[in-house]
């Protein structure tokens, strides 16, 4: 077994089987790290908790809902504004965050009265919003607050509201993936089938497992609509609470992120007989194959092919321009869950990048199986790495760029390595044909940025004389590869930087950030 032990983790022998290097002839029987296990004490994991997985990943993208966290204010603040889940209702779900602000006295005497007061005040503050989700946290789960009973009291008292309760305390699973499961099952148990939707087409789907990061969902929904398909609900990017209550009337569940939302698709199959079809919205070839798979289910192959031909003719030349300049650049693919395997092969095949490492903080064995199977020999796969292991990997592999989140990305920049935000994107959306070109442009601009090259200069030994600091002369002497840098106006990308605006003829303003603390 090709296990890899980090020097910084030699004192934690349990970490020995959480990283592997794919060698010549290695397959999944001999090259697979342990995954989705309880965090090893002392490793200082950077994982999210189950509460985070339920609220931050899946619940919060619902656009017309008051998302109330029942617990300390730090829980809700930590799961707010770190991803760009935009919506077409002026980004209501991004503007505000809500918490019952549980203190020590509530832990002693109970916090149910505090919860009810907060719920009533929140509905009063936003009279146009009649839907609420309450998320359990560790503190209030441990003291045994009966959230369901309080929710029923408020519903009976107000009459015209509907409330969803998600019991997903942070300790509810090894990682945030445990929260994905909990909210999936809670939603189908409590809400699916409680509203009868309006059917307007002979071809009806639920689009599941996409969270509208900078407009991803809207790009895919536009393709489906052009094919003549009604998207009954989106779970949960730009999703409406009541539309999601009608998921049981779809003819097909089209699943994007199998890590976060396969659970509800599987239950919809068991309870309502709705089949599941997995797709991939990233990359020209995977996207084209995915649209055709959905089309074949409904007999709409001609409509799908027309979209594929039109979009490919428009955007493929521009992708090729970037791929020629990205070829051979080394990348660490450290994005989290499904992107580990959504991106592993296609960025090599269509952009020419060399994936030297993949990792996941909460991926299951299935995620690593698919990710490692799509990686080339020599790739380092890591389960639940901590910061020290990430630094050691970067110093050893010497990647040109990393696709990851903000926290490990900022560490990478300190080491002189560029990064792109794989979770919330830099200039998304990245799904769709145009989106994939936008992703390539972001990679290109990151790699060839003159500022990035200057940032790598060590000025710690620069001499200082009486006339002042000599940094300016030092910078002027730097040999920047100007031939590799093309002015933006000469780059081939001619999109409008916001295909979502093009879909709706409506812009998404920057949200005003407000913390709503009702006491």
From TrEMBL:
Keywords for the protein's UniProt record, in alphabetical order: ATP-binding, Iron, Iron-sulfur, Metal-binding, Nitrogen fixation, Nucleotide-binding, Oxidoreductase
Enzyme class: oxidoreductase
The EC number(s) this enzyme carries: 1.18.6.1
Cofactors: [8Fe-7S] cluster
SUPFAM superfamilies per record: Helical backbone' metal receptor (SSF53807)
Domain Nitrogenase/oxidoreductase component: residue ranges: 49-447
Statement: the UniProt record of this protein carries the keyword DNA-binding: no
Origin superkingdom: Bacteria
Catalytic reactions of this protein: N2 + 8 reduced [2Fe-2S]-[ferredoxin] + 16 ATP + 16 H2O = H2 + 8 oxidized [2Fe-2S]-[ferredoxin] + 2 NH4(+) + 16 ADP + 16 phosphate + 6 H(+)
GO molecular function: ATP binding; iron-sulfur cluster binding; metal ion binding; nitrogenase activity
Gene3D superfamilies tied to this protein: Nitrogenase molybdenum iron protein domain (3.40.50.1980)
NCBIfam families, per the entry: alt_nitrog_alph (TIGR01284), ANFD (TIGR01861), N2-ase-Ialpha (TIGR01862)
Record family assignment: Belongs to the NifD/NifK/NifE/NifN family.
Protein name as annotated: Nitrogenase protein alpha chain
Species, as recorded: Propionispira arboris
């Amino acid at each position: 077994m090709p296990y890899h032990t980090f020097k910084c983790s030699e004192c934690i022998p349990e970490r020995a089987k959480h990283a592997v290097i794919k060698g010549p002839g290695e397959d999944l029987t001999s090259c697979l790290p342990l995954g989705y296990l309880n965090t090893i004490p002392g490793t200082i994991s950077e994982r999210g908790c189950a509460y985070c997985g339920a609220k931050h990943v899946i619940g919060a993208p619902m656009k017309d809902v008051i998302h109330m966290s029942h617990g300390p204010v730090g829980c809700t603040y930590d799961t707010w504004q770190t991803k760009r889940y935009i919506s077409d209702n002026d980004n209501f779900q991004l503007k505000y965050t809500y918490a019952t602000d549980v203190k020590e006295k509530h832990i002693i005497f109970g916090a149910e009265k505090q919860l009810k007061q907060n719920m009533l005040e929140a509905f009063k503050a936003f009279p146009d919003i009649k839907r609420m989700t309450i998320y359990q946290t560790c503190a209030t789960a441990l003291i045994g607050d009966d959230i369901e009973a309080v929710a029923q009291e408020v519903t009976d008292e107000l009459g015209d509201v509907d409330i969803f309760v998600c019991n997903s305390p942070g300790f509810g699973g090894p990682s945030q993936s445990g929260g994905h499961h909990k909210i999936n099952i809670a939603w189908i148990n409590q809400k699916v089938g409680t509203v009868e939707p309006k059917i307007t087409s002979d071809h009806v789907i639920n689009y599941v497992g996409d969270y509208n990061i900078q407009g991803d969902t809207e790009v895919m929904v536009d393709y489906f609509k052009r094919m003549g398909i009604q998207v009954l609900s989106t779970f949960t990017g730009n999703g409406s609470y009541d539309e999601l209550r009608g998921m049981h009337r779809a003819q097909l569940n089209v699943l994007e992120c199998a890590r976060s939302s396969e659970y509800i698709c599987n239950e919809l199959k068991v309870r309502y007989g709705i089949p599941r079809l997995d797709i991939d919205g990233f990359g020209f070839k995977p996207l084209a194959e995915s649209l055709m798979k959905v089309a074949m289910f409904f007999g709409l192959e001609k409509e799908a092919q027309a979209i594929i031909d039109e979009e490919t003719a428009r955007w493929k030349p521009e992708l090729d321009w970037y791929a020629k300049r990205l070829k051979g650049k080394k990348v660490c693919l450290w994005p989290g869950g499904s992107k580990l395997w959504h991106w592993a092969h296609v960025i090599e095949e269509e952009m020419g990048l060399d994936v030297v490492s993949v990792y996941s903080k909460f991926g299951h064995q299935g995620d690593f199986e698919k990710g490692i199977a799509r990686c080339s020999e020599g790739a380092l796969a890591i389960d639940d790495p901590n910061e020290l292991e990430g630094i050691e990997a970067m110093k050893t592999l010497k990647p040109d760029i990393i696709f990851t989140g903000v926290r490990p990305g900022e560490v990478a920049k300190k080491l002189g390595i560029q990064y792109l935000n794989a979770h919330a994107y830099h200039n998304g959306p990245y799904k769709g044909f145009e989106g994939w070109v936008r992703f390539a442009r972001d990679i290109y601009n990151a790699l060839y940025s003159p500022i990035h090259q200057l940032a790598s200069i060590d000025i710690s030994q620069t001499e200082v004389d009486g006339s002042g600091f000599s940094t300016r002369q030092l910078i002027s002497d730097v040999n920047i590869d100007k031939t590799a840098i093309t002015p933006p106006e000469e780059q081939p990308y001619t999109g409008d930087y916001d295909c979502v605006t093009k879909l709706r003829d409506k812009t998404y303003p920057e949200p005003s950030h407000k913390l709503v603390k009702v006491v």
